[in-house]
C-alpha cells in the first residue's frame, strides 16, 4: 500500500525576505520527517517534498498560515500523488536567483501571464488545428512521453527556451500558442515570456501534466507515454501510478527496461546515452561514488549528500521542473 504523500508545489510571489524563510522551513520538515527539495527566491517558492500524510498536511498548514511568512504562501498551488516508499533521501531548502531558471530579468507571471486552461478543457484546445502546441520541458522528458502532436523544442535546460522562441515562433505571434510542463511552473513562466515578446494568444495547462494525468480518464486522454518526475520514482502514468522507468545517474536520462539491460549500461556510471561522452575523470568519480553507495548499502546505511545548501549552483532539478 502506498503510504507516502508526494506533494509538488510552487507559487510566484514577491518575497524580499526569502532568505529568512530557509532555516524555519528546513527545521519544520526535518522535525516531521519530510524529505525532498524546495527552492526559495525573490520570485517565490518551488519544489517537491514527501512524507506521511499527516506530516504533509501539517506542512501545508504551516506554510500557508504561520505568521513568519506574512501570508506570502497562503494561495500556494500543489499537486499530490502517492508512493510506497519516500522517493527522496534527504531534505534540502536552497536559495536561488529564480525558482525556475529562465535567465532573463523582468520576466514574471506576477506581471504578465497567459490564460490558464483546466485539465478537463485541455483536449478541446489542443485538438484545434489552429493551435500550436509546445512542450516547454527538456528533451529527456519529452523522450518518454508528451501530448499528441506536441512540438519538441529540443532544449537541454529551460534557459534555452527563449532562444527556441526567437528562432522558431517569432513569425507566429498572431497564432494560438498552448504550452505545458510537468507541474505548471515552467509553462506559466513561458507564457510571461511570450507575452513580453508580443504574442497575442497564449495558453498553458493549469497544474501541468500531473494534474491532467490525475483528472482526465485514460480512455479520454491525449497523453502518450509516461511523465518524467524529479524524484526516485522517475516517471508516472495515468492516475499518477509509478511508471516503468529508471534513471542514469551520470547523465540523468530516463531509461526503460530494455535500456537498463543494455551492455552499455553500468549502474551508477553510464548508459546508452552517455557511455561514450564521459571523460576518464568523470567515469572514475562515478565509479567511486557507486562503490561508496554499495558499501553503505552493505552496512544498512544510505549514501547521501548535504542536506542544507544555500549556494546558487548552475543546475538543480527543480529549477527546470
UniProtKB/TrEMBL annotation:
One of its GO terms (biological process) is tRNA modification. SUPFAM superfamilies: Rhodanese/Cell cycle control phosphatase. PROSITE patterns: RHODANESE_3. GO terms for molecular function: oxidoreductase activity, acting on paired donors, with incorporation or reduction of molecular oxygen. Its EC number is 1.14.-.-. Residues 127-221 form the Rhodanese domain. It catalyses: uridine(34) in tRNA + AH2 + O2 = 5-hydroxyuridine(34) in tRNA + A + H2O. Keywords: Oxidoreductase, tRNA processing. Transmembrane segments: none annotated. Pfam families: Rhodanese (PF00581), UPF0176_N (PF17773). Residues 296-321 are annotated as: Disordered. SMART domains: RHOD. Catalyzes oxygen-dependent 5-hydroxyuridine (ho5U) modification at position 34 in tRNAs. NCBIfam families: PRK00142.1-4. Belongs to the TrhO family. This is tRNA uridine(34) hydroxylase. It comes from Methylophilales bacterium MBRS-H7.
Amino acid at each position: 500500500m502506498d503510504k507516502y504523500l508526494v506533494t509538488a508545489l510552487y507559487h510566484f510571489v514577491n518575497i524580499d525576505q526569502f532568505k529568512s524563510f530557509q532555516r524555519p522551513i528546513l527545521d519544520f520538515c526535518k522535525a516531521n520527517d519530510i524529505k525532498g527539495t524546495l527552492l526559495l527566491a525573490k520570485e517565490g517558492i518551488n519544489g517537491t517534498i514527501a512524507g506521511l500524510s499527516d506530516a504533509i498536511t501539517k506542512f501545508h498548514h504551516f506554510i500557508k498560515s504561520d505568521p513568519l511568512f506574512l501570508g506570502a504562501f497562503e494561495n500556494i498551488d500543489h499537486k499530490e500523488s502517492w508512493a510506497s516508499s519516500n522517493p527522496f533521501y534527504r531534505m534540502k531548502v536552497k536559495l536561488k536567483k529564480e525558482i525556475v531558471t529562465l535567465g532573463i530579468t523582468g520576466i514574471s507571471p506576477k506581471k504578465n501571464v497567459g490564460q490558464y486552461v483546466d485539465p478537463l478543457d485541455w483536449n478541446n484546445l489542443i485538438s484545434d488545428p489552429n493551435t500550436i502546441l509546445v512542450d516547454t520541458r527538456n528533451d529527456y522528458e519529452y523522450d518518454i512521453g508528451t501530448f499528441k502532436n506536441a512540438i519538441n523544442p529540443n532544449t537541454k535546460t529551460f534557459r534555452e527556451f527563449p532562444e527556441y522562441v526567437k528562432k522558431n515562433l517569432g513569425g507566429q505571434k498572431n497564432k494560438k500558442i498552448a504550452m505545458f510542463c510537468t507541474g505548471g511552473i515552467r509553462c506559466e513562466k513561458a507564457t510571461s515570456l511570450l507575452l513580453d515578446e508580443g504574442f497575442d494568444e497564449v495558453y498553458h495547462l493549469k497544474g501541468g501534466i500531473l494534474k491532467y494525468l490525475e483528472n482526465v480518464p485514460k480512455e479520454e486522454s491525449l497523453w502518450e507515454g509516461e511523465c518524467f518526475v524529479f524524484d526516485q520514482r522517475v516517471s508516472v502514468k495515468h492516475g499518477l501510478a509509478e511508471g516503468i522507468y529508471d534513471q542514469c545517474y551520470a547523465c540523468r536520462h530516463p531509461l526503460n527496461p530494455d535500456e537498463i539491460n543494455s551492455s552499455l549500461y553500468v549502474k551508477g556510471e553510464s548508459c546508452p546515452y552517455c557511455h561514450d561522452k564521459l571523460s576518464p575523470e568523470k567515469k572514475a568519480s562515478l565509479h567511486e561514488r557507486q562503490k561508496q553507495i554499495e558499501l553503505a548499502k552493505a552496512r544498512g546505511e544510505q549514501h547521501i549528500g548535504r542536506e542544507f545548501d544555500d549556494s546558487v549552483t548552475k543546475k538543480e532539478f527543480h529549477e527546470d521542473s
